[in-house]
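User: Reviewer 2 asked us to show a designed sequence for the structure in our supplementary figure. I'm pasting the structure tokens here. Could you produce the per-position amino acids so we can include them in the response letter?
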């Protein structure tokens, strides 16, 4: 048994599996880090940022982390609740008075965190609109988005609406009247020393940025006001997108995940309480199916999958099914993911932390199969 109680030969096989994926052109490259009880067992950059393999990835490569951004917004929401600024059971309309009509008054903050607000699954509010300015996105959501179901009837994953609202709630309730960007920087990035993470693509990070290659695997574009291209919002320095807009590195995301593994505190910086994390890591969706995954899985003939969502975190749960955290993960394993590229999870039972960012966005089902395979391989290395 090694000092960190993981089988190095099994971890070598993880590397070989990723190299085989890249050789088969499933994606361009990946950076990953695995640790047991805080001790690093594996960290490598493999492959490249581009399809031609001309831009080798490094451990400090900067990625647009897509929906892993939601983890930052969720953590800060939970923190605001701990500070008494509002409650999990506070109605959204009490915090955003314009959020009324056609059933919106019934939606509470915890419904947003657990994807049970009843909104339709939409990937854009208005076709082709710029998405990099939070105030414009809030105005559009208030104008056109209404629930399709009552709260808790369905688990309809919200690609953007929930976190547009959560980001706006953070801004409106902040005693210092700060912007969403300032709240993230001052209350999360600085305390955790996430120096290579930013809301928007900070100027000094651009040189290391892996420009997203969607490869036709995403249903819409992401336009920014600078018109850098159909997905140019991810290259905007001043973008504020609380659902997809953070840029980060594997080492920084590892520190975020380690804070969560250690019950809300890292290096004396306390972000959340153990009590809040215990609540957030409970399954609040029961065995109800994930409507988005169910729809996408139909092309493979997959059975409906339980959503297993807590308050801001995806959970492994108990069903034997396709899952990004693997089939071997303990039921309490929790984390967040980003479209076709990005994942972190923590298995508290095994004290195991996994962080993975990749270049070359994969189709949803293929991505789930990739992460399930790699997660299982990592967990199988535990001695």
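Assistant: Here is a per-position design you can include in the supplement:
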């Amino acid at each position: 048994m090694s000092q960190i109680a993981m089988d190095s030969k099994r971890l070598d096989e993880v590397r070989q599996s990723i190299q085989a994926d890249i050789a088969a052109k499933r994606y361009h490259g990946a950076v990953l880090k695995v640790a047991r009880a805080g001790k690093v067992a594996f960290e490598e950059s493999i492959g490249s940022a581009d399809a031609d393999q001309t831009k080798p990835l490094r451990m400090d490569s900067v990625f647009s982390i897509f929906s892993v951004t939601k983890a930052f917004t969720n953590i800060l929401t939970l923190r605001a609740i701990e500070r008494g600024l509002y409650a999990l059971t506070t109605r959204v309309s009490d915090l955003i008075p314009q959020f009324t009509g056609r059933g919106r008054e019934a939606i509470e903050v915890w419904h947003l965190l657990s994807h049970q607000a009843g909104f339709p699954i939409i990937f854009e509010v208005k076709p082709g609109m710029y998405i990099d300015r939070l105030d414009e996105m809030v105005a559009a959501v208030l104008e056109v988005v209404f629930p399709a179901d009552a709260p808790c009837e369905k688990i309809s994953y919200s690609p953007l609406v929930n976190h547009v609202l959560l980001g706006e709630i953070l801004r409106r309730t902040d005693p210092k009247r700060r912007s969403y960007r300032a709240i993230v920087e001052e209350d999360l990035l600085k305390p955790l020393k996430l120096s290579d993470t930013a809301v928007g693509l900070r100027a000094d990070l651009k040189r290391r940025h892996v420009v997203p290659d969607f490869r036709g695997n995403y249903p819409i574009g992401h336009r920014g006001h600078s018109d850098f291209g159909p997905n140019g919002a991810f290259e905007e320095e001043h973008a504020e997108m609380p659902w997809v807009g953070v840029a980060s590195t594997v080492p920084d995301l590892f520190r975020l995940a380690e804070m969560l593994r250690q019950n809300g505190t890292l290096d004396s910086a306390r972000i959340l309480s153990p009590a809040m994390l215990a609540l957030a890591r409970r399954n609040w969706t029961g065995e109800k199916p994930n409507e988005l995954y169910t729809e996408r899985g139909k092309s493979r003939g997959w059975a409906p999958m339980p959503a297993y969502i807590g308050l801001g975190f995806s959970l492994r749960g108990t069903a034997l099914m396709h899952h990004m955290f693997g089939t071997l993960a303990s039921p309490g394993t929790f984390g967040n993911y980003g479209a076709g590229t990005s994942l972190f999870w923590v298995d508290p039972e095994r004290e195991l932390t996994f962080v993975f960012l990749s270049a070359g966005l994969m189709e949803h089902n293929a991505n789930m199969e990739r992460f399930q395979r790699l997660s299982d391989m990592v967990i199988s290395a535990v001695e």
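For the response letter, you might also mention the following. The longest helix spans residues 364-380. The chain has a mean pLDDT of 97.
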